[in-house]
Design a protein that fits this description.
- One of its GO terms (biological process) is proton motive force-driven ATP synthesis.
- InterPro entries: ATP8_metazoa (IPR001421).
- It is a single-pass membrane protein.
- The chain is mostly helical and 53 residues long.
- Helices cover 83% and strands 0% of the residues.
- It is built from 2 helices and no strands.
- The protein is elongated, with a radius of gyration of 16 Å.
- The chain starts with 5 loop residues before the first helix and ends with a helix.
Length: 53
């Protein structure tokens, strides 16, 4: 296995953080949907998603 340069390590690290972030968002959204179907939270969530992407 070839030795990785620091840049690729950083990219790998960012990639794992990104996956973790998506995973947390997914769990968070599921918990909100199960506990209560609150329109306000859903609106805030969609607004933040639109703002991010």
């Amino acid at each position: 296995m070839p030795q990785m340069n620091p840049m690729s390590w950083i990219l790998l690290f960012i990639y794992f953080i990104y996956l973790f972030y998506l995973f947390i968002l997914f769990i968070y959204f599921n918990i909100i949907n199960k506990c209560q179907n609150n329109n306000l939270i859903n609106k805030i969530f969609t607004k933040s998603m639109n703002w991010k992407w």
